[in-house]
Amino acid sequence: MLVLRILLVLGLISVAVSLGIYIISGDKRYLKFTWQLTKFTLVMLLVVALVIAMGRIILY
Fold first, then answer.
1. Under a CB-based contact definition with an 8 Å cutoff, are residues 7 and 26 in contact?
2. Cα–Cα distance measured from residue 45 to residue 56, given in angstroms and rounded to the nearest whole number
3. How far apart are CA 26 and CA 24, in angstroms?
4. Separation between Cα atoms, residue 37 and residue 41, nearest integer Å
5. 29-57 pLDDT, tens per residue?
6. Which candidate, 7, 19, 20, places its Cα nearest to that of 52?
């Protein structure tokens, strides 16, 4: 669970920074990067959660 929290916090920080850069610069590339980063973060959180859940199911 600690790993999920760390990944979530790092993902949120990186999304916030990239959105901030987009707002400051107005460059559309950063908005596209933010969207890709959000998708990647969600997929990574899902994969880690599934691995943790599978580990708990197998151990019981």
1. no
2. 17
3. 6
4. 6
5. 999 999 999 999 899 889 988 998 999 99
6. 7
pTM: 0.75
Q: Are residues 36 and 11 in contact, defined by beta-carbon separation less than 8 angstroms?
A: no
Residue 31's alpha-carbon distances to 10, 25, 28, in angstroms, are 18, 10, 5
Three-class SS of residue 27?
coil
The pLDDT of residue 16 is above 80:
yes
Contact 55, 3 (CB under 8 A): no
Q: How far is CA 26 from CA 14, 34, 44, 50, in A?
A: 17, 13, 28, 37
User: The tokens of 58 are what?
Assistant: 């197998």
| Distances, alpha carbon 59 to alpha carbons 7, 50, 53, 54, 56, in Å | 24, 14, 10, 8, 5
